[in-house]
Structure formats: C-alpha cells, structure tokens
Write a structure and sequence with these properties.
The mean pLDDT is 82. This protein has two domains: 30 residues; 231 residues, no CATH class. By secondary structure, it is mainly α. The chain is 78% helix and 0% strand.
C-alpha cells in the first residue's frame, strides 16, 4: 500500500474512532460475548461454504495486491516498443533475455509464445485463455469476500436476538437485563462495521486491481501480436496508446490544416 493511502487510512480510522469517543467511553462498545457470536458464526459459515484452499488463495491474492506495485500502462507500452525495436534489429530470438528478466508473469508468458515461434492466431488464443481464467479466478476471490461480508450483518442480528432473548428471560431482574443489552446492541454494530469497513472494501479493491491488470494484459496481448507481425514501432506505439487516456498520451494532435491538405478539403471563403 502506498504511503499516501496508508496515511489516509490511519486518518480515517482515527476520525471513525473519535466519533465513538465523543459520546462516551470507548470501552462501552466492547463486548466479548458479541464478538464471539459474530466472529464465530461468520467464520463457521465461511468454513462450511468454502474450502480452506480457496480461503488461502484469497488471503494470498489480497496480500500480494496490497503489497505489490502494479506497473502503469505507459511503462508497459514503453517496454513493448523497446522489445519491438530490439526484435527488428536483432531478431525475435533476442527476446529470450527479456523473457527471463521481466517481473510480469503474463508478459513472460507472452514472450515465451513469441520466442517459441507460435503462429499469431495460436498466441492470441493462448493469451486470451490466460486472460479469461485469470479473470475467473479473481472474480471467485471477490465473490468469497462479498459472501463473508454478507455473513457478518446476519450474525450481528443473531447476536442481537440472543441478547433480546436474555432480556426477555430476565424480566424482573435488572442485573440480567443490563447484562443482555450490550450483547443485543454491540453484535449488530460489529456485524455492520466489519462487513462495510473491511470485507466489502477488500472486495472493491480486488475488483479495481483486477480491472487494472486486465487492461495491462490486453495491452501486452496486442503488443506481442504486433511484434510477431513485425509492425513498425511507430505504428505499434500509436496502436497501444489508444489504451491510454488523452492526458497520458504524448503525441500532439494533427492540426486542421494538415487534415484539410491530406483530404483535399477546400478552404472556406
């Protein structure tokens, strides 16, 4: 996670906790029974719903997503253009060195297809299959996170029901009622907070990260196919920069005078 994001997260958590402190003691919002009900129920339902291997994969994906830096689109385009120039000057087998050095697994996979001499149609089919199943795996991880987020409020309500039952059973005994009220209220609070402050943001971040990586993979796919077809590097750059926003493109726009001259448009009188 970038330092700016981490600083913003700490600031927001501080504001969030300060909102609890304004109207009372923070210890009032802690109830061990409520925590046991919410967390025990949620993770029990999670283990019944998914295999431990799937949960381990979700954890690894989240950890790598928050820790690892993803390359920008402009960096990928620069790498592909450099590869295109190197391929035209030294031959496609010179890309073998790049295959071993790059840190992007998908780019290494694409360069492997290029170095091994696959036909462009075969390379496109292989890489499209790679993209498809990458997307499927990420969507599966996101689905698991959103399912866990749905479990938390449900078991928060369960804790509230437990507290209400205890209150009804203790009618006439003030001590029992006072002991049951925190369970009823804090359980719902825990369910809402952990679902909306952690697991739903985890799922949203994973989707955003997946979309960024899919865009990079599509750029790599088109770039590698163009390199294999020996497309001119200038044409390759123009093609790949279509994936970028206008503010990220370096080339200047063609003037109206050049357009009129190219298409023989008469001057307005």
């Amino acid at each position: 996670m970038k330092s700016k994001n981490l600083f913003g997260l700490i600031a927001c958590i501080s504001l969030f906790c300060f909102g609890f402190l304004i109207n009372g003691n923070l210890s009032l919002y802690f109830n061990f029974s409520g925590l046991l009900i919410v967390f025990g129920g949620t993770f029990g339902a999670t283990l019944l719903s998914f295999k431990t291997e799937q949960l381990a994969i979700v954890y690894k994906v989240l950890r790598s997503s928050y820790r690892g830096e993803i390359k920008k689109e402009t960096e990928i385009i620069r790498i592909l253009i450099d590869l295109s120039i190197k391929s035209r000057m030294q031959g496609v087998l010179a890309l073998q060195d790049e295959e071993n050095e790059t840190s992007i697994l998908f780019l290494r996979r694409a360069l492997g297809c290029l170095v091994d001499g696959y036909a462009p149609e075969q390379t496109r089919e292989i890489l499209n299959t790679e993209i498809y199943f990458f997307k499927m795996r990420r969507e599966d991880s996101e689905r698991i996170l959103r399912t866990i987020a749905d479990f938390f409020p449900a078991f928060g309500i369960t804790g509230s029901v437990v507290g209400l039952i205890s209150m009804l059973g203790g009618i006439g005994d003030t001590s029992i009622i006072l002991h049951a009220i925190p369970i009823a209220l804090t359980s719902t609070l825990y369910g809402i907070v952990f679902a909306n402050f952690f697991f739903l943001p985890f799922a949203a971040f994973l989707r955003e990260r997946t979309n960024q990586e899919l865009l990079l993979q599509k750029i790599i796919l088109e770039g590698v196919i163009a390199i294999e077809s020996e497309v001119n590097p200038v044409i390759l750059r123009t093609k790949l920069e279509s994936f970028l926003t206008p503010s990220e493109r370096k080339e200047s726009l063609v003037s109206y005078a050049q357009i009129k001259e190219r298409f023989n448009i008469p001057q307005e009188e």
